[in-house]
Amino acid sequence: DPEADGSVEIRSGMNHKCLEILSFNNDNGAHTGMWDCWGGANQRWYWDGSQIRSGMNNKCLDVLAFNNDNGARVGMWDCWGGANQRWYWDGDRIRSELNNKCLDVLAFNNDNGAEVGMWDCVGGANQRWYTQ
How many CB atoms lie within 10 A of CB 24? Predict the structure, then answer.
């Protein structure tokens, strides 16, 4: 359910943890990862057309360096609308318009701080997402 400001948490279907900007890092290239949900601004997101913007700094979720490899890191960058910043829902998966790969909790890691990246869509729980 969106907050009054329209922001949502993006939660993993694997462990119900939240996608967040790690360490409240405001820099371009800041990494995203998974953490226990607690409602912080670094865990709030807005769907802005095909872009996913942070409630913390209004930057966009970005496939860093246009990397098409499995395991490519996803981080934050100033929004500019490139294919590496455009996303779409495919059932309960979040896919990149850059390469149609899926947002993935890498290595099925359940720890706080687990890395988030891109991977071929294979349907694992670590590629399933919901908003709350």
Answer: 12
pLDDT digits (tens, 9 = 90+) for 121-132: 999 999 999 999
pTM above 0.85, yes or no: yes
Residue 79 vs residues 41, 51, 52, 57, 82: alpha-carbon distances, Å = 18, 8, 9, 11, 8
Residues in the chain: 132
- How many other C-beta atoms can be found within 10 angstroms of the C-beta atom of residue 23? 11
Answer for the pair 86, 96: CB distance below 8 angstroms, yes or no. Answer: yes
Report d(CA 97, CA 43) in Å as an integer: 22
Average pLDDT over residues 107-118: 98
Contacts 24+ apart (CB under 8 A), 62-68: 63/96, 63/98, 63/99, 63/118, 64/29, 66/98, 67/118, 68/98, 68/99, 68/101, 68/118
Amino acid letter at 83?
A
